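Sequence design from tokenized structure. All designs in this work follow the same two-part layout: the structure record, then the generated sequence. An example of the structure record is given first.
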């Protein structure tokens, strides 16, 4: 379905993607004196990269590493063809002055905008908009302008019309700078991967700064959000805070600057086929084998960037509560935490990593019996190892305070081999789709989270499998191809002057135990076959004893 949709739409139109972080990172290897490339990290790259399985987009990104800058210097203002493992891109790097990039990335994007959109400010004390913030804001403007210039050049590179898809909070001012530069028609969409707070919280930014963000987004044809709540918040924000904007809540549109922008919902997802292929690789199998030795009779797993909004410390405290309330779990349950270092140049993040270590250290000292260490932390970037851990958990704890979507919840549901239970925060965008089959918790509620962990660990095998099956199917039905498909469908509608619908997930209800029992009976030969295939693919490991 997506193949034909992409083909139809892109037969006479070029796809240009722009994001701060590109799909690959280049590093200069001093020893071999060669450029090495690896997949960029983070949720945005994970999700958007999947697009290149269906199209060969031009991808405009900041040169973030020494290797990127070296490559960009060898190809000034040119696109670089890149292909690996079935992914193909035409890369175009934007090189900024180091001090300008530092302000744009390290002072405005993270922390100012990220903190704002994740409700991470401590209002009586922060943020403080100072002269330095104003100076950094000018850098944010100029990097966005440079992005817009590079995109405009790519739009003009040949005669075909272009579809420009912008991503995330680093590029809020790009569409506004791009529109007047376009010499030919182009549709512009901007997908916002993170939450969009209501007008009250945007009030922490001075009017001129926030208005320039809203105005620029209103230069797009479509502004895409992860959930209906965030899209509603955007409409509200424009109605309350963008002078002269006409908001139609029914139609989900904002009219500003002589243009209509459609606010639509496209819950992002994962590349299910790509992930399942990786999950069967030798590398993941080897990690799985090693990790099995770290598991307990019961294993709780979490996988996050080291990021305060992911709420890692409260997750440990909930686990501590579990060990306190139910001593029978001691020496039997292991908590494996896979943490990817992130933004360590920002003080808050450095401090947060320390807090995590102190908290885990305290719990380990309190409960460890010499043989058994309740929490084991794996710090580092190792995606295959993270995928192996997803296959093994009995319980996956995803408890962010607030999160645009959270791909780990979807990846876990897809790859897990033990019908593990998902404990999911209501603050994660993923809860809209997966909440029905997960144990949903309020992220600040340590007791509630501890009780959910207990319920998950005690759940009958039948109930576990009923829930796990629903989660697997739900993600498979709405995978990354559908995320793209819904957007392309809307663009087609716009091109013929019709109204774009957004993704209507038609969220299904989880079947009752009786319904799922008869469904299992009716489809058991198929199920047995797919289970056998999975076991065969899993190789010579012994099946879990639980
Ligand atoms: C933002 C929004 C939204 C895990 N370990 C490694 C690694 N991972 C992968 C995970 C997952 C991705 O990184 C993280 O994605 P999340 O969605 O969980 O979180 P953010 O990075 O905050 O992503 C989020 C997302 O954008 C997409 O729109 O869902 O709400 O905050 O795929 O499995 N990746 C690498 N090394 C690891 O060790 N490279």
């Amino acid at each position: 379905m997506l193949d034909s949709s992409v083909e139809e739409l892109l037969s006479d139109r070029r796809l240009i993607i722009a994001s701060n972080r590109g799909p690959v990172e280049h590093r200069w290897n001093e020893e071999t004196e060669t450029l090495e490339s690896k997949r960029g990290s983070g949720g945005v790259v994970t999700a958007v990269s999947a697009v290149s399985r269906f199209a060969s987009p031009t991808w405009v990104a900041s040169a973030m590493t020494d290797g990127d800058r070296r490559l960009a210097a060898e190809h000034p203002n040119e696109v670089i063809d890149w292909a690996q493992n079935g992914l193909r891109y035409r890369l175009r790097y934007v090189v900024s002055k180091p001090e300008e990039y530092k302000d744009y990335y390290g002072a405005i994007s993270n922390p100012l905008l990220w903190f704002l959109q994740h409700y991470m400010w401590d209002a009586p004390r922060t943020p403080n908009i100072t002269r330095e913030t104003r100076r950094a804001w000018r850098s944010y403007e100029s990097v966005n302008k440079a992005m817009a210039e590079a995109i405009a050049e790519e739009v003009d590179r040949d005669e075909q019309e272009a579809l420009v898809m912008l991503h995330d909070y680093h590029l809020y001012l790009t569409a506004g700078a791009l529109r007047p530069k376009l010499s030919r028609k182009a549709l512009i969409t901007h997908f916002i991967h993170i939450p969009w707070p209501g007008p009250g919280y945007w009030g922490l930014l001075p009017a001129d700064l926030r208005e320039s963000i809203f105005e620029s987004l209103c230069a797009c044809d479509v502004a895409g959000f992860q959930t209906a709540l965030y899209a509603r918040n955007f409409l509200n924000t424009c109605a309350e805070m963008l002078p002269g904007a006409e908001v139609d809540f029914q139609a989900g549109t904002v009219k500003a600057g002589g243009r209509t922008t459609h606010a639509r919902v496209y819950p992002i997802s994962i590349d299910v086929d790509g992930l399942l292929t990786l999950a069967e690789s030798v590398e993941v199998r080897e990690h799985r084998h090693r990790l099995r030795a770290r598991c307990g009779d019961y294993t709780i797993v979490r996988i996050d960037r080291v990021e305060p909004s992911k709420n890692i410390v409260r997750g440990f405290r909930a686990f501590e509560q579990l060990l306190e309330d139910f001593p029978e779990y001691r020496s039997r349950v292991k908590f494996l935490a896979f943490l990817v270092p992130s933004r360590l140049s920002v003080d808050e993040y450095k401090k947060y990593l320390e807090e995590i270590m102190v908290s885990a250290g305290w719990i380990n000292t309190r409960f460890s019996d010499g043989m058994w260490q309740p929490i084991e932390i794996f710090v580092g970037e190792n995606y295959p190892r993270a995928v192996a851990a997803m296959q093994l958990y009995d319980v996956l704890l995803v408890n962010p305070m607030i999160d645009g979507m959270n791909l780990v919840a979807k990846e876990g549901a897809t790859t897990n081999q033990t019908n593990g239970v998902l404990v999911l925060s209501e603050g994660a965008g993923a809860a809209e789709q997966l909440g029905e089959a997960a144990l949903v918790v309020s992220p600040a509620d340590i007791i509630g989270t501890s009780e959910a962990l207990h319920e998950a660990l005690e759940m009958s095998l039948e109930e576990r499998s009923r829930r796990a099956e629903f989660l697997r199917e739900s993600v498979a039905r709405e995978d990354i191809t559908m995320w793209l498909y819904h957007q392309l469908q809307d663009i087609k509608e716009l091109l013929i002057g019709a109204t774009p619908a957004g993704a209507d997930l038609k969220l299904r209800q989880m079947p009752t135990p009786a319904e799922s029992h008869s469904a299992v009976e009716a489809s058991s030969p198929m199920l047995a076959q797919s289970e056998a295939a999975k076991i065969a693919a899993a190789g010579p490991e012994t099946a879990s004893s639980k």
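Residues 41-44, 46-47, 193-194, 268, 303, 305, 340, 381-383, 386, 403-408, 411 surround GDP-alpha-D-glucose (CB under 6 Å). We note this feature because it recurs in several other targets discussed in the main text.
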